[in-house]
Write a structure and sequence with these properties.
Layout (H helix, E strand, L loop, with lengths): L4 E2 L7 H5 L11 E4 L5 E4 L4 E6 L4 E7 L2 E6 L13 E9 L2 E9 L9 E3 L6 E2 L9 H12 L9 E4 L2 E11 L2 E10 L5 E12 L10 E4 L3 E2 L5 E2 L2 E9 L7 E9 L6 E7 H5 L2 E2 H4 L3
Parallel strand pairs: 1-4, 2-8, 3-9, 12-21
Antiparallel strand pairs: 3-6, 4-7, 5-6, 7-8, 8-10, 11-12, 12-13, 13-18, 14-15, 14-17, 14-19, 16-18, 19-20
């Protein structure tokens, strides 16, 4: 769950708050809230940053593209006034941002429980930390899914399971690595973990074995159990490694069986990564 930044509001009246909340079309955005209703704001891509301008609204991010907010319950001694602006909520995603007035409604039935934000309602935002938004990554990954296999000699078999490299593509500083597993048995395979490492190609006796673990920034398929076929596309930030090392994909099964597959990809295969501009069409 992502942390949300809270900044106390310095303005003492609702009019000052309302005047700051304008979307790209010039209209004020409002959300009606009530302390008995959780309001879920859904946008089309992962949320990178949230600011709630006062401590009268609390919130969290239960799923990466959903912000959940609710007014703080202050009890019966002090009540919010109907129509009072409790806070400004600012949401910044990978490419867009939007702001809302959170307006209190004393009638819980009039409070918004679900708000779907369309891209057209959000202002464009250039996030210099992100070269490729997740939605764009997924579109490329699905395009790769529908292309033919280009690697035919990078595979490994064990326990009547075969793990195979299908494709490697590169764009905008990212590697897209397409891998599949074929199960020749009738025993269901439950994936425990998949680890990606850059390791020494040859391990000599009396020497230290060195390896660096690499984490993907996107996994297209979240499925973890299969009987006959498994396929996934993993996206990594571009990396390089010397010829004496190898990129490995290690797939291990849940205990007690614990069948483990290790696919070794030489640097020469990485260098042969294709470009999207030549072979993948949306």
């Amino acid at each position: 769950m992502k942390k949300i930044l809270f900044i106390c509001c310095l303005y003492g009246f609702a009019g000052s708050i309302s005047s700051q909340v304008i979307n790209k079309s010039g209209d004020v955005q409002t959300i009606r809230v009530n302390e008995e209703v959780s309001t879920h704001i859904t946008i089309g891509e992962p949320i990178e940053y949230v600011d709630i301008s006062t401590d009268r609204i609390t919130g969290d991010i239960p799923i990466k593209n959903i912000l959940r907010i609710k007014p703080i319950d202050i009890g019966s001694e002090v009540n919010y006034e109907d129509g009072e602006v409790l806070a400004i909520v600012t949401i910044v995603s990978e490419r867009y941002k939007i702001q809302f007035n959170c307006v209190y409604s004393s009638d819980r039935d009039k409070a918004s429980s679900n708000v779907d934000v369309k891209t057209n309602d959000m202002a464009s935002y250039v996030n210099t930390n992100i070269d490729m938004p997740e939605l764009e990554m997924r579109r490329f990954a699905w395009s790769i899914w529908n292309t033919g296999r280009k690697y035919f000699d990078v595979s490994r078999e064990a326990y009547r399971l075969r793990i195979t490299l299908n494709n490697i593509y590169t764009i905008k500083g990212n590697f897209f690595i397409d891998v599949s597993i074929r199960n020749k048995t009738n025993i269901e395979y439950d994936v425990d973990q998949i680890r990606f490492k850059i390791a020494d190609k040859r391990v000599l006796k009396g020497t230290n074995f060195q390896e660096i673990e690499v984490e993907p920034i996107l996994s297209l398929n979240e499925g973890r159990t299969f009987i006959k076929e498994f396929r996934n596309i993993y996206v990594f930030e571009k990396f390089t490694f010397p010829d004496e090392k190898v990129f490995t994909i290690e797939v291990s099964e849940q205990q007690i069986s614990g069948r483990t597959l290790i696919l070794r990809i030489d640097y020469a295969d990485v260098l042969n990564a294709d470009s999207f501009s030549r072979s993948v069409v949306f």
